[in-house]
Amino acid sequence: MPCYNFTTETFMAKKNYKDWSKEDLISRIEKLEKRKKYGLVWDEERTKEVFELQALNGLPVLEDVPENAINTNPEQPTHILIEGDNFHALSVLSYTHEKLVDIIYIDPPYNRGLRDSNDFRYNDKYVDREDSFRHSKWLSFMAKRLIAAKNLLKDTGVIFVSIDDNELSQLKLLMDNVFGEDNYKNTIIIRRGSKNVQAQFETIDKLSSGYEYVLFYSKTPTQRFPKMVKELDQSKQGGWNNHWRGTNRPTMRYKLFGITPETGQWRWGKERSLVAVDNYKQMLKELGKKTEELTPQEIDSWFLDKSAEAGEEIDMLRLSANGKPEHYVPPTDTTLLNDVWFDISPNSTSVLKSIFGKKVFDNPKPLELIKRICKFASKDAVIVDFFAGSGTTAHAVLELNEEDEGKRQVILATNNENNICTEVCYPRFKKVIKGYKNPRGAKIDGLNGNLKYYRTSFVPAEPSDENKELLTRQSVEMLCLRENTFDFVTETDVWKLYENNEHYTAILFDQLSIPDLKEELEKLKKPVSVYVFSLEDDNFANEFAGMKEKVKVCSIPEAILRVYRRIYQ
Fold first, then answer.
1. Does the chain have fewer CB atoms within 10 Å around its N or its C terminus?
2. Which CATH number describes the domain made up of 10-228+340-454?
Protein backbone atom coordinates (compact mmCIF):
# COMPACT_ATOMS: atom_id res chain seq x y z
CA MET A 1 0.00 0.00 0.00
CA PRO A 2 1.63 3.27 -1.09
CA CYS A 3 2.09 6.11 1.35
CA TYR A 4 0.45 9.41 0.41
CA ASN A 5 -0.11 12.70 2.18
CA PHE A 6 -3.67 13.80 1.48
CA THR A 7 -5.81 16.24 3.39
CA THR A 8 -9.54 16.26 3.96
CA GLU A 9 -9.78 19.18 1.53
CA THR A 10 -8.32 16.97 -1.23
CA PHE A 11 -11.34 14.73 -1.02
CA MET A 12 -13.92 17.43 -0.39
CA ALA A 13 -12.78 19.84 -3.12
CA LYS A 14 -15.34 20.79 -5.75
CA LYS A 15 -14.52 19.38 -9.19
CA ASN A 16 -13.79 21.88 -11.97
CA TYR A 17 -14.72 19.86 -15.06
CA LYS A 18 -13.60 22.65 -17.40
CA ASP A 19 -9.99 21.79 -16.62
CA TRP A 20 -10.43 18.06 -17.28
CA SER A 21 -9.03 16.36 -20.37
CA LYS A 22 -11.33 14.64 -22.86
CA GLU A 23 -10.11 11.23 -21.66
CA ASP A 24 -10.82 12.07 -18.01
CA LEU A 25 -14.29 13.34 -18.86
CA ILE A 26 -15.09 10.17 -20.81
CA SER A 27 -13.87 8.07 -17.90
CA ARG A 28 -16.05 10.07 -15.53
CA ILE A 29 -19.13 9.67 -17.73
CA GLU A 30 -18.54 5.93 -18.05
CA LYS A 31 -18.32 5.67 -14.28
CA LEU A 32 -21.57 7.57 -13.84
CA GLU A 33 -23.24 5.35 -16.43
CA LYS A 34 -22.37 2.30 -14.34
CA ARG A 35 -24.23 3.62 -11.32
CA LYS A 36 -27.40 1.78 -10.44
CA LYS A 37 -30.59 3.27 -11.82
CA TYR A 38 -32.76 2.33 -8.84
CA GLY A 39 -31.97 2.51 -5.17
CA LEU A 40 -29.92 4.76 -2.98
CA VAL A 41 -27.32 6.98 -4.66
CA TRP A 42 -25.29 9.68 -2.93
CA ASP A 43 -22.13 11.67 -3.53
CA GLU A 44 -19.51 9.34 -2.09
CA GLU A 45 -16.43 10.92 -3.62
CA ARG A 46 -16.89 14.29 -1.94
CA THR A 47 -17.52 12.82 1.50
CA LYS A 48 -14.35 10.92 2.40
CA GLU A 49 -13.48 10.44 6.06
CA VAL A 50 -10.25 11.25 7.86
CA PHE A 51 -9.68 7.57 8.67
CA GLU A 52 -9.45 6.87 4.93
CA LEU A 53 -6.53 9.27 4.80
CA GLN A 54 -4.96 7.68 7.86
CA ALA A 55 -5.25 4.23 6.29
CA LEU A 56 -3.03 5.33 3.41
CA ASN A 57 -0.22 5.85 5.90
CA GLY A 58 -0.94 3.37 8.69
CA LEU A 59 -2.64 0.02 9.31
CA PRO A 60 -4.65 -0.49 12.50
CA VAL A 61 -3.58 -2.94 15.20
CA LEU A 62 -4.54 -3.40 18.84
CA GLU A 63 -2.53 -2.19 21.80
CA ASP A 64 -3.20 -3.87 25.14
CA VAL A 65 -4.05 -1.68 28.15
CA PRO A 66 -3.23 -4.18 30.92
CA GLU A 67 -4.06 -1.87 33.83
CA ASN A 68 -7.70 -1.86 32.67
CA ALA A 69 -8.04 -5.63 32.46
CA ILE A 70 -10.56 -7.29 34.79
CA ASN A 71 -10.47 -10.94 35.82
CA THR A 72 -13.12 -12.28 38.19
CA ASN A 73 -14.00 -15.77 36.98
CA PRO A 74 -11.98 -17.99 34.60
CA GLU A 75 -15.14 -19.96 33.77
CA GLN A 76 -16.81 -16.86 32.31
CA PRO A 77 -16.16 -15.34 28.85
CA THR A 78 -13.62 -12.56 28.40
CA HIS A 79 -15.39 -9.49 27.07
CA ILE A 80 -13.65 -6.93 24.87
CA LEU A 81 -13.59 -3.12 24.88
CA ILE A 82 -11.75 -1.38 22.03
CA GLU A 83 -11.05 2.35 22.35
CA GLY A 84 -10.61 3.98 18.97
CA ASP A 85 -12.36 4.92 15.74
CA ASN A 86 -14.95 2.25 15.17
CA PHE A 87 -13.94 1.72 11.55
CA HIS A 88 -10.40 0.94 12.66
CA ALA A 89 -11.88 -1.46 15.22
CA LEU A 90 -14.05 -3.03 12.51
CA SER A 91 -10.96 -3.42 10.33
CA VAL A 92 -9.23 -5.37 13.09
CA LEU A 93 -12.35 -7.44 13.73
CA SER A 94 -12.60 -8.18 10.01
CA TYR A 95 -9.48 -10.28 10.53
CA THR A 96 -10.12 -11.62 14.02
CA HIS A 97 -13.87 -12.29 13.78
CA GLU A 98 -14.82 -12.83 10.14
CA LYS A 99 -18.07 -14.87 10.11
CA LEU A 100 -17.86 -15.44 13.87
CA VAL A 101 -20.45 -12.97 15.21
CA ASP A 102 -24.03 -13.94 16.08
CA ILE A 103 -25.59 -10.54 16.79
CA ILE A 104 -24.63 -6.96 15.98
CA TYR A 105 -26.52 -4.17 17.71
CA ILE A 106 -25.65 -0.53 17.04
CA ASP A 107 -27.10 2.84 17.99
CA PRO A 108 -25.45 5.21 15.49
CA PRO A 109 -25.81 9.01 15.42
CA TYR A 110 -29.28 9.98 14.21
CA ASN A 111 -28.07 12.93 12.10
CA ARG A 112 -30.63 15.35 13.48
CA GLY A 113 -28.54 18.34 12.48
CA LEU A 114 -28.08 19.36 16.11
CA ARG A 115 -24.86 20.68 17.58
CA ASP A 116 -24.67 18.55 20.69
CA SER A 117 -22.39 15.81 21.94
CA ASN A 118 -24.65 12.97 20.87
CA ASP A 119 -25.41 14.00 17.31
CA PHE A 120 -23.45 13.40 14.13
CA ARG A 121 -19.86 14.58 13.77
CA TYR A 122 -18.01 14.00 10.52
CA ASN A 123 -14.27 14.52 10.32
CA ASP A 124 -14.43 16.10 13.79
CA LYS A 125 -17.04 18.67 12.76
CA TYR A 126 -20.74 18.76 13.64
CA VAL A 127 -22.98 18.29 10.62
CA ASP A 128 -25.86 20.75 10.85
CA ARG A 129 -29.06 21.04 8.85
CA GLU A 130 -27.58 23.64 6.51
CA ASP A 131 -24.87 21.28 5.25
CA SER A 132 -25.65 20.45 1.60
CA PHE A 133 -23.98 17.06 1.97
CA ARG A 134 -25.54 16.24 5.34
CA HIS A 135 -27.24 13.02 4.20
CA SER A 136 -24.40 12.02 1.87
CA LYS A 137 -21.88 12.28 4.68
CA TRP A 138 -24.05 10.18 6.99
CA LEU A 139 -24.66 7.55 4.31
CA SER A 140 -20.96 7.32 3.46
CA PHE A 141 -20.18 7.04 7.16
CA MET A 142 -22.75 4.27 7.67
CA ALA A 143 -22.20 2.36 4.42
CA LYS A 144 -18.53 1.63 5.08
CA ARG A 145 -19.28 0.41 8.59
CA LEU A 146 -22.26 -1.73 7.62
CA ILE A 147 -20.32 -3.39 4.80
CA ALA A 148 -17.51 -4.23 7.23
CA ALA A 149 -20.04 -5.37 9.83
CA LYS A 150 -21.72 -7.76 7.40
CA ASN A 151 -18.45 -9.65 6.99
CA LEU A 152 -18.35 -10.28 10.74
CA LEU A 153 -21.70 -12.05 10.85
CA LYS A 154 -22.10 -15.79 10.71
CA ASP A 155 -24.46 -17.05 8.02
CA THR A 156 -26.94 -17.40 10.89
CA GLY A 157 -26.15 -13.92 12.22
CA VAL A 158 -28.45 -10.91 12.61
CA ILE A 159 -28.06 -7.16 12.92
CA PHE A 160 -30.24 -4.61 14.73
CA VAL A 161 -29.81 -0.85 14.12
CA SER A 162 -31.53 1.86 16.18
CA ILE A 163 -32.65 4.97 14.29
CA ASP A 164 -35.31 7.70 14.24
CA ASP A 165 -37.25 9.53 11.52
CA ASN A 166 -34.30 11.64 10.35
CA GLU A 167 -32.53 8.81 8.52
CA LEU A 168 -34.99 5.89 8.70
CA SER A 169 -35.90 5.88 5.00
CA GLN A 170 -32.28 6.31 3.89
CA LEU A 171 -31.04 3.64 6.30
CA LYS A 172 -33.67 1.15 5.12
CA LEU A 173 -32.55 1.55 1.50
CA LEU A 174 -28.89 1.35 2.52
CA MET A 175 -29.40 -1.84 4.52
CA ASP A 176 -31.44 -3.35 1.68
CA ASN A 177 -28.42 -2.68 -0.51
CA VAL A 178 -25.81 -4.04 1.93
CA PHE A 179 -27.68 -7.01 3.39
CA GLY A 180 -30.22 -7.68 0.64
CA GLU A 181 -33.90 -6.82 0.60
CA ASP A 182 -34.76 -10.50 1.17
CA ASN A 183 -32.93 -10.36 4.50
CA TYR A 184 -35.09 -7.55 5.89
CA LYS A 185 -37.10 -8.90 8.82
CA ASN A 186 -38.81 -6.08 10.69
CA THR A 187 -38.91 -2.43 11.59
CA ILE A 188 -39.35 -2.66 15.35
CA ILE A 189 -41.07 0.28 17.05
CA ILE A 190 -40.01 1.33 20.54
CA ARG A 191 -41.21 4.13 22.77
CA ARG A 192 -39.10 7.26 22.94
CA GLY A 193 -38.32 9.02 26.19
CA SER A 194 -38.68 12.73 25.50
CA LYS A 195 -40.41 15.78 26.89
CA ASN A 196 -43.17 17.36 24.84
CA VAL A 197 -42.44 21.09 24.76
CA GLN A 198 -45.30 21.90 22.38
CA ALA A 199 -47.78 22.58 25.20
CA GLN A 200 -46.28 26.06 25.72
CA PHE A 201 -47.15 27.19 22.16
CA GLU A 202 -50.46 28.26 20.59
CA THR A 203 -49.69 26.46 17.31
CA ILE A 204 -47.37 23.65 16.25
CA ASP A 205 -45.54 22.89 13.01
CA LYS A 206 -45.91 19.10 13.29
CA LEU A 207 -46.92 16.35 15.68
CA SER A 208 -44.36 15.36 18.30
CA SER A 209 -42.70 11.98 17.85
CA GLY A 210 -43.24 9.39 20.54
CA TYR A 211 -41.25 6.51 19.15
CA GLU A 212 -38.04 5.33 17.47
CA TYR A 213 -37.18 2.30 15.37
CA VAL A 214 -34.86 -0.69 15.27
CA LEU A 215 -34.19 -2.13 11.81
CA PHE A 216 -33.75 -5.91 11.94
CA TYR A 217 -31.91 -7.87 9.20
CA SER A 218 -30.51 -11.38 8.92
CA LYS A 219 -27.41 -12.50 7.01
CA THR A 220 -29.38 -15.11 5.03
CA PRO A 221 -33.09 -15.12 4.12
CA THR A 222 -33.76 -18.65 5.41
CA GLN A 223 -32.67 -17.88 8.97
CA ARG A 224 -35.15 -18.94 11.68
CA PHE A 225 -35.38 -17.62 15.24
CA PRO A 226 -36.65 -18.81 18.61
CA LYS A 227 -40.31 -18.01 19.22
CA MET A 228 -40.30 -14.87 21.36
CA VAL A 229 -42.88 -13.80 23.94
CA LYS A 230 -43.48 -10.72 26.07
CA GLU A 231 -45.26 -10.22 29.38
CA LEU A 232 -48.90 -9.13 29.32
CA ASP A 233 -50.11 -6.28 31.51
CA GLN A 234 -52.94 -8.57 32.63
CA SER A 235 -53.12 -12.36 32.56
CA LYS A 236 -55.25 -13.73 29.73
CA GLN A 237 -57.92 -16.30 30.62
CA GLY A 238 -57.96 -19.70 28.97
CA GLY A 239 -60.17 -20.18 25.92
CA TRP A 240 -61.12 -22.58 23.13
CA ASN A 241 -59.83 -22.78 19.54
CA ASN A 242 -61.06 -24.66 16.47
CA HIS A 243 -59.32 -28.05 16.35
CA TRP A 244 -59.44 -28.23 12.55
CA ARG A 245 -56.75 -26.59 10.43
CA GLY A 246 -56.39 -26.07 6.70
CA THR A 247 -53.02 -27.75 6.12
CA ASN A 248 -53.55 -31.01 4.28
CA ARG A 249 -52.14 -34.12 6.01
CA PRO A 250 -54.28 -37.22 5.35
CA THR A 251 -52.68 -39.09 8.28
CA MET A 252 -54.13 -36.47 10.62
CA ARG A 253 -57.70 -37.05 9.39
CA TYR A 254 -59.45 -39.51 11.69
CA LYS A 255 -62.85 -39.86 13.34
CA LEU A 256 -63.32 -37.46 16.26
CA PHE A 257 -66.73 -36.94 17.89
CA GLY A 258 -68.09 -38.88 14.90
CA ILE A 259 -66.54 -36.38 12.45
CA THR A 260 -63.90 -37.31 9.85
CA PRO A 261 -62.71 -34.25 7.86
CA GLU A 262 -62.61 -34.66 4.07
CA THR A 263 -59.93 -31.96 3.72
CA GLY A 264 -57.43 -30.35 6.05
CA GLN A 265 -56.50 -32.09 9.30
CA TRP A 266 -56.94 -32.18 13.06
CA ARG A 267 -54.27 -30.26 14.97
CA TRP A 268 -53.08 -33.21 17.05
CA GLY A 269 -52.48 -36.88 16.45
CA LYS A 270 -55.27 -39.35 17.24
CA GLU A 271 -53.86 -40.62 20.53
CA ARG A 272 -53.25 -37.13 21.91
CA SER A 273 -56.75 -36.00 20.90
CA LEU A 274 -58.44 -38.99 22.56
CA VAL A 275 -56.54 -38.37 25.82
CA ALA A 276 -57.63 -34.71 25.66
CA VAL A 277 -61.28 -35.77 25.26
CA ASP A 278 -60.96 -37.99 28.34
CA ASN A 279 -59.42 -35.10 30.32
CA TYR A 280 -62.39 -32.87 29.52
CA LYS A 281 -64.86 -35.58 30.56
CA GLN A 282 -62.88 -36.02 33.79
CA MET A 283 -63.21 -32.28 34.51
CA LEU A 284 -67.00 -32.37 34.02
CA LYS A 285 -67.23 -35.36 36.34
CA GLU A 286 -65.09 -33.85 39.10
CA LEU A 287 -66.80 -30.45 38.97
CA GLY A 288 -70.24 -32.06 38.67
CA LYS A 289 -71.34 -29.67 35.94
CA LYS A 290 -72.42 -29.66 32.33
CA THR A 291 -70.48 -27.76 29.66
CA GLU A 292 -72.90 -24.85 29.57
CA GLU A 293 -72.69 -24.47 33.36
CA LEU A 294 -68.91 -24.04 33.54
CA THR A 295 -67.30 -20.62 34.05
CA PRO A 296 -63.92 -19.73 32.51
CA GLN A 297 -62.48 -19.32 36.01
CA GLU A 298 -63.53 -22.87 36.98
CA ILE A 299 -61.99 -24.34 33.84
CA ASP A 300 -58.72 -22.43 34.32
CA SER A 301 -58.50 -23.41 37.99
CA TRP A 302 -59.09 -27.11 37.28
CA PHE A 303 -56.59 -27.06 34.41
CA LEU A 304 -53.86 -25.41 36.51
CA ASP A 305 -54.35 -27.87 39.40
CA LYS A 306 -54.23 -30.95 37.15
CA SER A 307 -51.24 -29.63 35.19
CA ALA A 308 -49.37 -29.05 38.45
CA GLU A 309 -50.13 -32.64 39.52
CA ALA A 310 -48.98 -34.00 36.15
CA GLY A 311 -45.83 -31.85 36.07
CA GLU A 312 -46.75 -30.57 32.60
CA GLU A 313 -49.67 -28.90 30.84
CA ILE A 314 -52.51 -31.30 30.08
CA ASP A 315 -54.69 -31.18 26.95
CA MET A 316 -58.47 -30.86 26.81
CA LEU A 317 -60.78 -31.30 23.83
CA ARG A 318 -64.55 -30.91 23.55
CA LEU A 319 -67.39 -30.48 21.09
CA SER A 320 -68.51 -26.86 20.86
CA ALA A 321 -72.11 -25.66 21.03
CA ASN A 322 -72.19 -25.46 17.22
CA GLY A 323 -70.93 -29.03 16.87
CA LYS A 324 -67.25 -28.44 16.06
CA PRO A 325 -64.28 -29.96 17.95
CA GLU A 326 -62.28 -27.33 19.84
CA HIS A 327 -59.22 -27.60 22.07
CA TYR A 328 -58.43 -25.67 25.23
CA VAL A 329 -55.88 -22.84 25.11
CA PRO A 330 -54.42 -22.38 28.63
CA PRO A 331 -54.36 -19.07 30.53
CA THR A 332 -51.16 -17.13 30.02
CA ASP A 333 -49.16 -14.18 31.29
CA THR A 334 -47.39 -13.77 27.94
CA THR A 335 -48.17 -13.21 24.29
CA LEU A 336 -46.18 -13.77 21.12
CA LEU A 337 -43.79 -10.92 20.39
CA ASN A 338 -44.54 -8.71 17.40
CA ASP A 339 -42.69 -5.66 16.06
CA VAL A 340 -44.26 -3.18 18.52
CA TRP A 341 -42.15 -3.21 21.69
CA PHE A 342 -44.02 -0.63 23.73
CA ASP A 343 -43.74 -2.84 26.82
CA ILE A 344 -40.11 -1.70 27.19
CA SER A 345 -39.80 1.49 29.21
CA PRO A 346 -37.82 4.23 27.44
CA ASN A 347 -36.56 5.65 30.74
CA SER A 348 -33.02 4.31 31.10
CA THR A 349 -31.19 7.37 32.43
CA SER A 350 -31.96 6.22 35.98
CA VAL A 351 -29.79 3.12 35.49
CA LEU A 352 -26.72 5.25 34.79
CA LYS A 353 -27.55 7.61 37.66
CA SER A 354 -27.68 4.61 39.98
CA ILE A 355 -24.18 3.59 38.87
CA PHE A 356 -22.50 7.01 38.73
CA GLY A 357 -24.64 9.04 41.12
CA LYS A 358 -25.26 11.68 38.45
CA LYS A 359 -26.23 12.11 34.81
CA VAL A 360 -23.26 11.16 32.62
CA PHE A 361 -24.86 10.39 29.24
CA ASP A 362 -27.88 11.59 27.26
CA ASN A 363 -30.51 9.08 26.15
CA PRO A 364 -28.87 5.71 26.81
CA LYS A 365 -30.77 2.77 25.34
CA PRO A 366 -32.91 0.67 27.71
CA LEU A 367 -31.27 -2.43 29.17
CA GLU A 368 -34.38 -4.49 28.47
CA LEU A 369 -34.24 -3.59 24.78
CA ILE A 370 -30.72 -4.98 24.38
CA LYS A 371 -31.49 -8.03 26.54
CA ARG A 372 -34.42 -8.89 24.29
CA ILE A 373 -32.28 -8.49 21.18
CA CYS A 374 -29.62 -10.78 22.67
CA LYS A 375 -32.22 -13.54 22.96
CA PHE A 376 -32.36 -13.86 19.18
CA ALA A 377 -29.27 -16.08 19.42
CA SER A 378 -27.99 -18.85 21.67
CA LYS A 379 -26.67 -18.43 25.21
CA ASP A 380 -23.06 -18.61 23.97
CA ALA A 381 -23.48 -15.94 21.29
CA VAL A 382 -20.80 -13.43 20.29
CA ILE A 383 -22.37 -9.96 20.32
CA VAL A 384 -20.78 -6.84 18.80
CA ASP A 385 -21.63 -3.17 19.34
CA PHE A 386 -19.32 -0.72 17.54
CA PHE A 387 -21.21 2.40 18.67
CA ALA A 388 -20.81 1.43 22.32
CA GLY A 389 -21.62 4.82 23.86
CA SER A 390 -22.29 4.38 27.57
CA GLY A 391 -21.85 0.60 27.42
CA THR A 392 -25.50 -0.48 27.69
CA THR A 393 -24.91 -3.53 25.47
CA ALA A 394 -22.18 -4.82 27.79
CA HIS A 395 -24.38 -4.24 30.85
CA ALA A 396 -27.26 -6.10 29.16
CA VAL A 397 -25.09 -9.09 28.23
CA LEU A 398 -23.67 -9.36 31.76
CA GLU A 399 -27.15 -9.23 33.29
CA LEU A 400 -28.54 -11.78 30.85
CA ASN A 401 -25.63 -14.17 31.46
CA GLU A 402 -26.33 -13.90 35.19
CA GLU A 403 -30.05 -14.54 34.71
CA ASP A 404 -29.87 -17.60 32.46
CA GLU A 405 -26.32 -18.86 33.14
CA GLY A 406 -25.30 -17.95 29.61
CA LYS A 407 -21.79 -17.63 28.20
CA ARG A 408 -22.36 -14.75 25.80
CA GLN A 409 -19.31 -12.67 24.89
CA VAL A 410 -19.66 -8.98 24.08
CA ILE A 411 -17.23 -6.92 21.98
CA LEU A 412 -17.58 -3.14 22.25
CA ALA A 413 -15.88 -0.42 20.24
CA THR A 414 -16.09 3.33 20.78
CA ASN A 415 -13.93 6.38 20.31
CA ASN A 416 -13.04 8.51 23.32
CA GLU A 417 -14.79 11.67 22.19
CA ASN A 418 -15.67 13.72 25.28
CA ASN A 419 -13.97 10.93 27.28
CA ILE A 420 -16.97 8.68 26.69
CA CYS A 421 -14.83 5.53 26.76
CA THR A 422 -12.54 6.30 29.70
CA GLU A 423 -15.07 8.10 31.91
CA VAL A 424 -18.37 6.35 31.13
CA CYS A 425 -18.18 3.14 29.12
CA TYR A 426 -15.20 1.51 30.84
CA PRO A 427 -16.13 2.60 34.40
CA ARG A 428 -19.66 1.26 33.84
CA PHE A 429 -18.25 -2.05 32.56
CA LYS A 430 -15.98 -2.25 35.61
CA LYS A 431 -18.67 -1.35 38.16
CA VAL A 432 -21.18 -3.82 36.74
CA ILE A 433 -18.59 -6.62 36.84
CA LYS A 434 -17.11 -5.82 40.25
CA GLY A 435 -20.11 -4.26 42.00
CA TYR A 436 -20.71 -0.74 43.31
CA LYS A 437 -22.67 1.35 45.80
CA ASN A 438 -25.69 3.22 44.51
CA PRO A 439 -26.45 6.84 45.56
CA ARG A 440 -28.40 5.55 48.58
CA GLY A 441 -25.37 3.64 49.81
CA ALA A 442 -26.77 0.20 49.02
CA LYS A 443 -24.23 -2.36 47.81
CA ILE A 444 -24.98 -3.72 44.34
CA ASP A 445 -23.31 -7.08 43.78
CA GLY A 446 -21.05 -7.48 40.78
CA LEU A 447 -21.83 -9.79 37.89
CA ASN A 448 -19.37 -12.47 36.83
CA GLY A 449 -17.19 -11.50 33.91
CA ASN A 450 -13.74 -10.70 32.58
CA LEU A 451 -12.56 -7.82 30.41
CA LYS A 452 -9.69 -7.05 28.05
CA TYR A 453 -9.20 -3.38 27.16
CA TYR A 454 -7.49 -2.40 23.90
CA ARG A 455 -6.68 0.82 22.06
CA THR A 456 -6.25 1.01 18.33
CA SER A 457 -2.73 1.83 17.19
CA PHE A 458 -1.00 1.89 13.81
CA VAL A 459 1.97 0.46 11.95
CA PRO A 460 3.29 2.01 8.72
CA ALA A 461 1.36 0.95 5.62
CA GLU A 462 4.23 1.34 3.15
CA PRO A 463 5.15 -2.17 1.96
CA SER A 464 8.62 -3.14 3.14
CA ASP A 465 10.23 -6.12 4.86
CA GLU A 466 10.79 -4.01 7.95
CA ASN A 467 7.14 -2.97 8.13
CA LYS A 468 5.95 -6.55 7.62
CA GLU A 469 8.01 -7.68 10.57
CA LEU A 470 6.77 -4.74 12.63
CA LEU A 471 3.15 -5.57 11.75
CA THR A 472 3.70 -9.17 12.86
CA ARG A 473 5.14 -8.14 16.21
CA GLN A 474 2.39 -5.57 16.73
CA SER A 475 -0.37 -8.04 15.83
CA VAL A 476 0.08 -10.27 18.90
CA GLU A 477 -3.03 -8.86 20.58
CA MET A 478 -5.04 -9.30 17.38
CA LEU A 479 -4.00 -12.95 17.18
CA CYS A 480 -4.90 -13.55 20.82
CA LEU A 481 -8.28 -11.94 20.19
CA ARG A 482 -8.80 -14.07 17.07
CA GLU A 483 -8.06 -17.22 19.06
CA ASN A 484 -9.71 -16.04 22.30
CA THR A 485 -6.49 -16.97 24.14
CA PHE A 486 -5.75 -14.22 26.66
CA ASP A 487 -3.74 -16.07 29.32
CA PHE A 488 0.02 -15.61 28.88
CA VAL A 489 2.03 -18.85 29.27
CA THR A 490 5.64 -18.16 28.32
CA GLU A 491 7.89 -16.46 25.76
CA THR A 492 11.39 -16.30 24.32
CA ASP A 493 13.05 -13.74 22.07
CA VAL A 494 11.45 -15.36 19.02
CA TRP A 495 8.06 -16.73 20.12
CA LYS A 496 5.16 -16.17 22.51
CA LEU A 497 2.65 -18.65 23.89
CA TYR A 498 -0.90 -17.99 25.16
CA GLU A 499 -3.81 -20.23 26.14
CA ASN A 500 -7.44 -20.61 27.16
CA ASN A 501 -9.26 -23.67 28.52
CA GLU A 502 -9.44 -25.32 25.09
CA HIS A 503 -6.22 -24.57 23.22
CA TYR A 504 -2.95 -22.63 22.89
CA THR A 505 -1.80 -19.90 20.52
CA ALA A 506 1.87 -19.78 19.52
CA ILE A 507 3.32 -16.79 17.63
CA LEU A 508 6.73 -17.33 16.02
CA PHE A 509 8.79 -14.41 14.71
CA ASP A 510 11.70 -16.41 13.22
CA GLN A 511 11.25 -19.41 10.92
CA LEU A 512 14.68 -20.74 11.88
CA SER A 513 13.32 -21.42 15.36
CA ILE A 514 10.56 -23.77 14.18
CA PRO A 515 12.43 -26.85 15.56
CA ASP A 516 12.76 -25.21 19.00
CA LEU A 517 9.08 -24.25 19.00
CA LYS A 518 8.03 -27.77 17.97
CA GLU A 519 9.98 -29.17 20.88
CA GLU A 520 8.02 -26.89 23.22
CA LEU A 521 4.69 -27.74 21.57
CA GLU A 522 5.29 -31.46 22.00
CA LYS A 523 4.96 -30.95 25.76
CA LEU A 524 1.49 -29.43 25.46
CA LYS A 525 -1.68 -31.50 25.80
CA LYS A 526 -4.17 -29.13 24.16
CA PRO A 527 -4.35 -28.22 20.42
CA VAL A 528 -2.23 -25.30 19.21
CA SER A 529 -2.81 -22.55 16.64
CA VAL A 530 0.62 -21.53 15.32
CA TYR A 531 1.29 -18.23 13.53
CA VAL A 532 4.63 -18.01 11.73
CA PHE A 533 6.19 -14.81 10.40
CA SER A 534 6.96 -14.91 6.68
CA LEU A 535 7.93 -12.15 4.26
CA GLU A 536 5.98 -14.02 1.60
CA ASP A 537 2.98 -16.25 2.21
CA ASP A 538 4.82 -19.49 2.88
CA ASN A 539 2.97 -22.67 3.70
CA PHE A 540 4.53 -24.26 6.78
CA ALA A 541 2.42 -27.43 6.70
CA ASN A 542 5.44 -29.63 5.93
CA GLU A 543 7.43 -28.23 8.85
CA PHE A 544 4.62 -29.30 11.22
CA ALA A 545 3.56 -32.41 9.28
CA GLY A 546 4.15 -34.76 12.20
CA MET A 547 1.88 -32.67 14.42
CA LYS A 548 -1.04 -31.94 12.08
CA GLU A 549 -3.55 -33.61 14.42
CA LYS A 550 -2.54 -31.14 17.11
CA VAL A 551 -1.32 -28.05 15.25
CA LYS A 552 -3.01 -25.59 12.88
CA VAL A 553 -0.53 -23.30 11.06
CA CYS A 554 -0.99 -19.86 9.49
CA SER A 555 1.53 -17.56 7.80
CA ILE A 556 1.51 -13.90 8.88
CA PRO A 557 1.33 -10.98 8.21
CA GLU A 558 -0.01 -11.80 4.72
CA ALA A 559 -3.26 -13.19 6.16
CA ILE A 560 -3.84 -9.82 7.86
CA LEU A 561 -2.75 -7.78 4.85
CA ARG A 562 -5.22 -9.59 2.58
CA VAL A 563 -8.07 -8.42 4.79
CA TYR A 564 -6.77 -4.84 4.91
CA ARG A 565 -6.34 -4.69 1.13
CA ARG A 566 -9.96 -5.71 0.70
CA ILE A 567 -11.12 -2.99 3.10
CA TYR A 568 -8.90 -0.04 2.17
CA GLN A 569 -8.27 -0.40 -1.54
1. C
2. 3.40.50.150
